[in-house]
Specification:
alpha/beta, 12 helices, Lyase, Ornithine Decarboxylase, Chain A, domain 1, TIM Barrel, about 25% strand
């Protein structure tokens, strides 16, 4: 094994998740898969062809850098939409490559007009509206001026979409706020339409919007974390299970993370293990090293807390997680040997370790832990 660990991506799990989520939004709604942050740690270049094979032809990214990576591997018929950062120097590049992008400031809109005039080619823009998140987007009092600019420059600007972003649709506590956002968005879209502008797509729904607020599914949805087999939050999952009165999860985790046992040492009782004095053996122990540490995405916060699977048993990380290694207590595994498979995330026999279990242990989110996985770890496609 050239690398110290590897990631497996399950095509069947991905196909299952996309099929389930598409059934929630309906056949008449455009399905855009969000692949920002290196496709939530799954690897843009590795997973994009898989996504295409599952029937998705629209991809949402955050930046030009992500768009460039997707452009290199996508099929010609697929479209890329930039939802966030695009420097003025790259507006021409986006227009030239038929990439659509969000516009949320007057300065950006004016820059787009100037560049598209110089190129004699329409820019495909999505007008982002401020509906209550107070992050990015045009406020209501800015819209008359924005509409004038778009209408005056209709040869240069194609209003492909009008959009906004929900501020925490995964949490029940945000229910009134999200409903107000949806109502505000629909009202502002109506105002834009009354001025003679009809966008191709109106969109506000993310994964949590699709699952918790069906009214937010309009002409297009931007679905991210749930495609990869993760619920936007535990509340969303619990609501589903309660409503369906089932324990069966319709989402399947796409990603597994694996390594191997590097060495095994016998350690006497009352000896400290790894750096410092955070773990003291309370019996004669058998300690295994795994060549994965915080430098590879396994958080140092999991020192003396984390678990891995070896020989279909859950074993505990002991001592401090190092930059390149961790040590685990395998005293109760009589047949463990160097080279045995170690599962950091995924299944082994009847046992499993989910990304959520990491989150519970170190107060992080699925999103945060996934996106910390280094792009250098090889991704392998499995059924």
């Amino acid at each position: 094994m050239l690398f110290t660990s590897y990631i497996e991506l399950s095509k069947s799990a991905l196909n299952n998740n996309i099929g389930y989520l598409k059934s929630k939004v309906g056949a008449n709604t455009k399905y855009s898969m969000v692949i920002k942050a290196n496709a939530y740690g799954h690897g843009i270049e590795d997973i994009l062809p898989l996504i295409e094979s599952c029937g998705v032809d629209h991809f949402s990214v955050f930046s030009v850098e992500e768009a460039r990576r997707a452009l290199k591997v996508k099929n010609e018929y697929c479209h890329i939409m930039i939802m966030g950062f695009i420097d003025d120097d790259y507006i021409e590049w986006a227009i030239e490559n038929d990439i659509s992008f969000f516009v949320f400031t007057p300065e950006r809109l004016n820059a787009v007009v100037e560049v598209s005039k110089k190129m004699v080619k329409q820019a495909r823009i999505h007008l982002e509206l401020e509906t209550g998140m107070h992050r990015t987007g045009f406020c209501e009092d800015q819209l008359p001026g924005v509409i004038d600019v778009i209408k005056t420059n209709s040869r240069n600007i194609f209003l492909e979409g009008v959009c906004s972003h929900l501020a925490g649709a995964e949490s029940i506590s945000n229910f009134p706020r999200i409903n107000r956002q949806i109502e505000t968005f629909k009202r502002l879209v109506g105002f834009i339409a009354s001025k003679g502008l009809t966008p191709k797509y109106k969109h506000i729904a993310c994964s949590a919007g699709v699952l918790n607020f069906p009214d937010s599914c309009l002409d297009l949805v931007r679905v991210g974390i749930s495609n990869y087999g993760f619920w936007p939050g535990n509340e969303t999952k619990m609501l589903y299970l309660k409503d369906k009165q089932t324990v069966d999860d319709p989402l399947k985790q796409v990603l597994s993370w694996k390594s191997k046992v590097m060495s095994i040492n016998n350690v006497k009782e009352d000896e400290y293990v790894s750096y410092g004095t955070s773990f003291l053996t309370n019996r004669d122990s058998k300690i295994a090293t795994v060549p994965v540490g915080y430098g590879y995405g396994f958080s140092r916060n999991l020192s003396n807390l984390g678990h891995v699977l070896i020989n279909s048993k859950r074993v505990t990380v002991v001592g401090s997680v190092n930059m390149n290694m961790m040590v685990v207590d395998v005293s109760d595994l009589p047949n463990v040997k160097v080279g045995d498979e170690v599962v950091l995330i995924g299944k082994q026999g009847s046992k499993s370790i989910s990304v959520s279990s990491f989150s519970d242990m170190n107060n992080s989110m699925n999103y945060e832990l996934l996106t910390r996985l280094p792009s250098a770890i090889p991704r392998l496609i499995v059924d």
